[in-house]
Amino acid sequence: MAKETILEKLETLEQNIYYLKEFKEKHTLNEVLNDKTLEWALRYGIFESSQIVIDIACAISADFNLGNPKSYKECIELLKTNNYISEPVARDLVKIAGLRNLLVHEYIKISMEKLFNLLSELETFVEFIAQIRKNLL
Asked: Coil, strand or helix: which one is 130?
């Protein structure tokens, strides 16, 4: 994936963060629990943001020959090992990658409360963007 494409994905992630923050300001957990459309919006916003992080992590790992990851978790860990992202950001992103897998494969079992609470932890995405930009530019 070209550097320009990675930067475009970072911009999309920034937009997603904006909309997820706006979502949190406008809606309560109770509203989400009682409105399937809001639940879907929350699920998709978190899923797409998580997928962008994974796509970028795996692309950088491949483009810069950081190793041969066998999982999304390993892509993120390679970024940490090669100083593209910090340990705290990597630790949080590994959890987010796991959540992404649950959203895709076990969507019925996902706690809406857990997803809604993630809206208060969007700083991990913001830090990821900052650290990747710093190390790519």
From this structure: helix
At the topology level, CATH places domain 3-136 in Four Helix Bundle (Hemerythrin (Met), subunit A) (1.20.120)
Mean pLDDT by 10 residues, the chain (137 residues): 90 98 98 96 95 96 93 96 97 91 77 92 96 91
| Amino acid identity, position 63 | D
Show me where the domains of the chain are located.
3-136
Helix (H) or strand (E) holding 34: none
For residue 51, what are its two tokens? Answer: 């997928």
User: How high is the pLDDT of residue 83?
Assistant: 96
Instruction: Measure the CA–CA gap between 97 and 64, rounded to whole angstroms.
Output: 21
Q: Give the predicted TM-score (pTM) of the model.
A: 0.92
Residue type at position 20: L
